[in-house]
Amino acid sequence: MRPKTCVVTGSSNGIGRGIAERFGEEGCNVVVNYRSSKEAAEEAVETVEASGGSAIAVQADVTDIEQVEQMREAAHEAFGQVDVLVNNAGINQDVLFKEMSHEEWDVVLDVHLDGAFHCTQVFYDDLVDAEQGRLINISSIVGKGGNFGQANYATAKAGIFGFTRTLALELAREGTTANCVAPGFISTRMVEELPEKVKERIRNDTPLGRLGTVKEVAEVVAFLASDRSSFITGEIIDINGGKDL
């Protein structure tokens, strides 16, 4: 049985990298996508291969569909058909809504929503033709509850929920599943750089009393990509330590 081939967008760092490395532990073929962090992407490839998988690093800006098409060609050349697509690429441009420029609004929605649209459309036939096609979108707790200074990010992440549920309906007749993971506050470089008083407030507001880990998110994504999740589709799975209980 051939290894699954998994494309993880925005996987040179953070949650995306953790997902790529977890797929490597499963012995998968992994396409590590990056926009500008070439060195970090190459390090991720080394980690995936050291853990038993195969990997390539592919530069592609997900807001440019032609670059996404080139990423598909690279994936096909290296590994053949793609079985799993994880739409993880994202950015934030935090600013109070009253002061937010249209550019700051557009750039966040472009990466999160246009990026998911481009990648899913380009890899759609792969997912449909795969024996166990899996579409997994990474959203955020912020898409449900909003967050001060993140109107653009919250809107984009909320849009991923509707996108996931619609694709789940359309892909179901092909036997392909689509699910969404919505992490809470995870211990990534971006979160760790927050002021300590802000992190302390987050921990106090979380029933489990701590930040989540990248590994905890990656484990759920790995499950959704596996045959163990074959009757799960259209779901939004929260990984937030009980924060919205």
UniProtKB/TrEMBL annotation:
EC class of the enzyme, as a word: oxidoreductase
Task: Name the UniProt key words of this record, in alphabetical order.
Answer: NADP, Oxidoreductase
Q: Name one GO molecular function term.
A: 3-oxoacyl-[acyl-carrier-protein] reductase (NADPH) activity
Q: Entry's Pfam families?
A: adh_short_C2
Superkingdom in the source lineage: Archaea
Q: What is its EC number?
A: 1.1.1.100
An annotated GO BP: monocarboxylic acid metabolic process
- The coiled-coil regions, if any, are none
- The segment(s) forming the Ketoreductase domain are 4-189
Give the similarity note.
Belongs to the short-chain dehydrogenases/reductases (SDR) family.
Q: What is this protein called?
A: 3-oxoacyl-(Acyl-carrier-protein) reductase
